[in-house]
Design a protein that fits this description.
With 327 residues, this protein is of the alpha+beta class. It has two domains: 3-175, no CATH class; 191-320, no CATH class. It has nine helices and eight strands. The protein has helices spanning 3-18, 22-33, 42-45, 60-77, 82-102, 128-144, 151-186, 249-263, 265-269; strands at residues 191-194, 200-209, 212-221, 225-236, 272-278, 284-290, 299-306, 314-320. The strands form two sheets. Strands 1-2-3-4 form a four-stranded antiparallel beta sheet. It starts with a helix and ends in a 7-residue tail after the last strand.
Length: 327
């Protein structure tokens, strides 16, 4: 989840626990965003893996330490009960862990005692719908409404936001559970991938045989089933020597795959897919793009162009719109 949504959801949960108490609301909201402060540990993360992003700060132990420190320090800054400060900051930190574990990026809630992962694959790590709602909500609560409207309007806004996020998470979770149970009946798929739309999902499989990998995926819409696909791409996992231009789209994909993975860490860390097209003047262009990050119909990926004269391939990273030709 994005930082704005982490903070806003923690604010709403804190409101549900203690009501309108500005000091406690601020502490709970702050605790909801603090786990992502592990970005400052980046230089030390290689030497101390516990300090990596989604490491110890995204664990129950980590958020409890933060809550305990907050319970001691917060009353010195704003009068209040140390116990209540601890409760709201613990709740804010747990909200952060649960939201990240709700997405396709895993978190280790039991560190340092266990490296077991929490990953529900029910949402994107960055969802532009919740990001827009969260940013707009902060502007509304802290800019438009603060000291400008009756308290009843503020309460109405908070309750509407509570209802929105409760419904949003419920729809996402229900969708993940339903598709997960139906996965084997949909075809040769073993993974469920969320999209930015809570009613649209991807189902896919990755199969490795020898030095080649086959990816197959399709688009699933609630109430309609599979609406696009399946699409399939085969590629070599390791670079292969070759001379001249590719002779086919499959060969272009196979040659391009190692180059694309080397050029983009996104492809290495997400499910991905490739398509190849013949150039009018000869040669081939292959594009490998991520299936887990999309924006306005485009996805981050790598385009590899093989010129017709067999010269060096041209590699370029950008956002590309898939052509989506079903098998």
């Amino acid at each position: 989840m994005d930082l704005f949504t982490h903070v806003l959801v923690a604010y709403l949960v804190t409101f549900g626990i203690v009501g309108f108490h500005p000091s406690y609301l601020a502490a709970g909201a702050l605790a909801g965003g603090l786990p992502d402060g592990d970005a400052v540990f980046f230089p030390l993360a290689r030497r101390f893996p516990l300090l990596r992003h989604h490491g110890i700060t995204h664990s129950l132990f980590g958020v409890s330490v933060v809550a305990a420190v907050g319970a001691l320090v917060a009353p010195l800054l704003a009068p209040g009960s140390p116990l209540v400060y601890f409760v709201v900051m613990e709740a804010g930190g747990i909200c952060h862990i649960l939201q990240d574990g709700f997405t396709h990026f895993s978190v280790p809630p039991l560190l340092p005692f266990s490296d077991s992962k929490l990953e529900l694959d029910a949402d994107r790590a960055i969802n532009f719908l919740t990001l827009a709602v969260s940013v707009g909500s902060f502007y509304l609560l802290l800019g438009v409404e603060r000291n400008h409207v009756a308290f009843a309007w503020y309460l109405l806004t908070v309750y509407v936001l509570m209802a929105f996020y409760a419904a949003y998470f419920a729809v996402r979770l229900a969708g993940r559970l339903v598709i997960g149970r139906r996965l084997s009946a949909l075809g040769d798929f073993d993974h469920v991938v969320p999209t930015g739309n809570p009613f649209v999902w991807l189902v896919l499989s990755e199969r490795s045989q020898g030095s080649r990998q086959r990816t197959t995926w399709a688009r699933y819409v609630f109430g309609r089933g599979l609406v696009a696909g399946p699409y399939r791409a085969d590629a070599d996992l390791d670079p292969t020597p070759h001379a001249g231009p590719p002779a086919s789209g499959d060969e272009a994909l196979a040659w391009a795959y190692p180059l694309a993975r080397r050029a983009s860490s996104v492809l290495e860390s997400t499910y991905h897919f490739g398509e190849a097209t013949a150039e009018p003047a000869g040669g081939w262009t292959a594009v490998w793009y991520s299936l887990e990050f999309t924006m306005l119909g485009r996805a981050p990926g790598v385009r590899v162009r093989f010129p017709p004269d067999g010269g060096a391939a041209e590699v370029r990273r950008a956002f590309y719109r898939p052509r989506l030709r079903a098998i």
